[in-house]
């Protein structure tokens, strides 16, 4: 068995690639030989990414802009690998959910995944090449969390969208799966969960007794993109330390 996964010669698109998990996935794929296009709405993040990893190509786009995405992603392809990582988390209690927060969350967490995947999958089919899509979901898709009414709901919708995609794209040799992490120790994760009193309540519900590191999620995504998971589609890979079984 080869010591690490190789994506040499394959083209990959990663959304939400400016920070955190998306950035780490883009770098890992590039270092594993893939030709990577990193998509983010923040130009400064993309500039720092290309300084870190000069071989990565970039797209600066707001995924909520349907027409701009159609044009730019269509022109940048075709791709064989897609990681839909971009997401927003606007936390409000159920009684305080605003229309703007709901619409933004639906546009990015659900609509953008559907749209980008359509563009990329159509190109895969036209090229007659097999492909793999990984959608970054959350443990929140399967467990109610306070102040997460919209976030939980959009991630649940993403899980079901991924299953339908897997069913319809399977005959074209395109696999679709999700990864569903617990809290991940990105820079934002460390900032939001640095209060021991707040983090203890969550960690106490995780049998492994810790939050996920970025590499835990990246390694799971790379596995699902690779030929090592050639018979896996329509699945949700939990990267939650056992949170959902507790």
Automatic annotation (TrEMBL):
The keyword Zinc-finger does not apply. It comes from the Eukaryota. Transmembrane segments: none annotated. GO terms for biological process: glucose metabolic process; xylulose metabolic process. GO terms for molecular function: carbonyl reductase (NADPH) activity; L-xylulose reductase (NADPH) activity. PANTHER family: D-ERYTHRULOSE REDUCTASE, D-ERYTHRULOSE REDUCTASE-RELATED. Keywords: NADP, Oxidoreductase. Belongs to the short-chain dehydrogenases/reductases (SDR) family. It comes from Pardalotus punctatus (spotted pardalote). InterPro entries: L-xylulose/Carbonyl_redctase, NAD(P)-bd_dom_sf, Sc_DH/Rdtase_CS, SDR_fam. This is DER reductase. CDD domains: XR_like_SDR_c. The keyword NADP applies. Homotetramer. Pfam families: adh_short_C2.
